[in-house]
Amino acid sequence: MSLSPPFSLRLMIELKDISLSNILKTINISIPEGGYIGIAGPNGSGKSSLAKIIKGIQDPSEGGVYINGVLRPKGKVSSDIGLVLSSPENQLVSSSIEEDVAFGLENMNLPSQEIAKRTEEALRLGDLWESRDTPAHHLSAGQQQMLVIAGIMAMQPGYLIIDEGASMIDPQGRITVLDAVKKINRENGVGVIHISHDLSELIVARTISILDKGSIVWEGEPSKLHHQEPLLSALGMELPPLLKLKSLMISGGYDISDKAMTAEEMADEVVKVINRPA
Ligand SMILES: Nc1ncnc2c1ncn2[C@@H]1O[C@H](COP(=O)(O)OP(=O)(O)OP(=O)(O)O)[C@@H](O)[C@H]1O
Ligand SMILES: [Mg+2]
């Protein structure tokens, strides 16, 4: 007979009453391992400051970061949390692709066989194994960002923070990076904290928190975002185009499911409207 555990055995990051001078105000967010949360907000709203606090590069002035229920001491950087920033070239450490991924592993004093195995796996995950003899600076921006992500994934983190990690990349590279992040969450079970000023990047998240002037002003599922148009426009943010279409159709009196998020789901909804008897 198998017994259900009385509590969740998953890992958890909890931000409890985090404040940072006048930059962040009493932020509370829970991030389960394997979860995918989005954090959005206008320029200067405190997103990157929050990312640094989650990683442990910056200590909050009040409140704390709890990892599996235990308060992380001040000054401690979490090696289990990877941080991907917007400019890949600033995050690469070597001109050799293999060296770049192996660098972090060498610092972990792993046996050389394990380093070689993890390097190959990470480069395959980033679709870079076949290009491993190319100098890193010859890769496209999207491939460079995939190299940064591969270097982090080789260290087998429980969480990945993406702070505008796809914002400065060409459209094709952007899709590659966003797809890879989704796959890392869904297939590798890595918890993702995805920060972007662009809400269309965040519709894959389970929940989104919107920051303004250091406070969370809205929190909810992406499928509920279209009800927040007045708030978003006051913050200078835009609904993703498909959600804008959904919002327009609902305000025009059409019965559209709240759950429709993708182009395929919206197309199904529109077809239902067209085929409905008058
Ligand atoms: N080291 C620092 N010292 C003092 N103020 C800072 C520091 N870093 C950021 N700030 C200020 O904190 C506020 C939040 O900045 P932060 O970079 O966290 O915002 P953001 O939401 O990431 O913005 P962006 O969308 O431009 O990336 C801004 O007013 C910024 O000027
Ligand atoms: Mg930022």
Molecular structure report:
The structure is a single chain. The chain starts with 11 loop residues before the first strand and ends with a helix. α3 packs across α4. The longest helix has 18 residues. β4 and β5 form a beta hairpin. Helix content is 34%, strand content 21%. It has 8 helices and 10 strands. It has 2 domains: 212 residues, P-loop containing nucleotide triphosphate hydrolases (Rossmann fold), CATH 3.40.50.300; 39 residues, no CATH class. The N terminus is likely disordered. The chain is of the alpha/beta class and 278 residues long. It has a 6-stranded mixed sheet with strand order 6-7-8-3-9-10, with helices on both faces. The chain has a 4-stranded antiparallel sheet with strand order 2-1-4-5, covered by helices on one side. It is globular, with a radius of gyration of 20 Å.
Strand adjacency order, main sheet: 6-7-8-3-9-10
Name every ligand kind in the structure: adenosine-5'-triphosphate, magnesium ion
Give the helix/strand class.
alpha/beta
- The top-level CATH class of the largest domain is Alpha Beta
| Count of strand segments | 10
Q: How many DSSP helices?
A: 8
